[in-house]
Amino acid sequence: MQIPFVNLRRQHEPILADMQAALNHLISSNRLMGGEAIQSFETKFADYLGVCNVVSCANATDALEIVLRAWRIQPGDEIIIPANGWMSAAEAIRLLGATPVLVDNHPNTFNIDLQKLSEKIGARTKAIVPIHLYGNPVDMKQLTGLADSHGLKVLEDCAQAHGASVDTKKVGCWGEVGIFSFYPTKNLGAVGDGGAIATNNNALAERCRAIANHGQLEKHTHTILGRNSRMDAWQAKVLSLKIPYLERWNRRRQQIANHYLESWQKLPIKLPQKNDNAVWHLFVVQVENRDKVRGDLAKLGIQTEVHYPIPVCQQPLFEKFRDPAGYPNAERQAHHVLSIPLYPELTDVEVEYIVAAVKKVTESVVR
Ligand SMILES: Cc1ncc(COP(=O)(O)O)c(C=O)c1O
């Protein structure tokens, strides 16, 4: 059996006719950028999250940079981010000339270690950018409490966590602002690039919208230094079509994740923590002899990935921002993490095949 790491064709097959109809409608409407498609998507996603404003943009990396610009982050300002996560937050901070302050990840949750975070808050700290890594929500009650007590802003990176929640409140609604990616493989994915900024702060939303649209608050009047970061109408149409499926897809992800967790309890691998509020963008185990396990699974037809082999704290570009004490958890995780296929379209037969294959391979290889 061959099991690819993701299979978007399967996701799109049941909605292909609707997608084609939407594209036809868009082409005949003559409005390929902006307009009703964008407004409708922004309203639908805002309603889904339970937030007042969603501002669409070209991708999540732009979204991060736009928010930091809207906050007027400057050289000398410090922004706290996790030592392991995707690169975008660190990039956006550096593009503004500000300083990323890296905090080690927690050994069990993979998310920023809140204990260690408080030690890194200093006079120049302006904001915290938690990443809900792999779809596992950061404890936002604790994080926002910490941020509030120090007067810090919070920008949630929800690129991997559409629909995850803490208590009943969705991620992206806890901080002043949250950002989302709609890269095709995300839990809610477009058929190209896309991103969004979610906030209850109307003034911030207006400023972000202007920055993403050449600094125009009014058409042809450029008041802020902006850029072009538009989502195109076709991506907005596809996303609007997919939003009603997101909860069902996330529930299937949770079902598969729980089955993996139950089935692999006794194996010599470290499993991710069970969390019913997680949306399992990735199912990441930690295993000794990772590359051998990966190779053996490939021989059985199972494609795996590594997120991420080189964490932000070990990237050459961020060398000068490294804490000399190092980042033991993030660095250890980088050597051991292995992402096992998990997506809603996996059949029960494929899930059982993966369960059996991981048992077989880890029991023989890891010891
Ligand atoms: C945690 C995280 N943040 C930000 C991004 C950037 O998203 P985009 O590709 O839409 O710029 C990604 C993309 O993989 C991500 O995983």
Explain the layout of strands and helices.
Blueprint: H1 8-12, H2 16-29, H3 35-49, E1 53-57, H4 60-70, E2 78-82, H5 88-95, E3 99-103, H6 114-119, E4 125-128, H7 140-150, E5 153-157, E6 165-166, E7 169-170, E8 177-181, E9 195-199, H8 202-212, E10 216-218, E11 221-222, H9 233-263, E12 283-286, H10 290-299, H11 328-336, E13 337-340, H12 348-365
Parallel strand pairs: 2-3, 2-4, 4-5, 5-8
Antiparallel strand pairs: 1-9, 6-7, 8-9, 10-11, 12-13
Helix pairs in contact: 2-9, 3-9, 4-5, 4-8, 10-12
The structure holds pyridoxal-5'-phosphate (PLP).
Pyridoxal-5'-phosphate is lined by residues 59-61, 85-86, 88, 131, 157, 159-160, 181, 183, 193, 195.
Key terms for this structure?
367 residues, alpha/beta, Aspartate Aminotransferase, domain 2, 2 domains, two-stranded antiparallel sheet
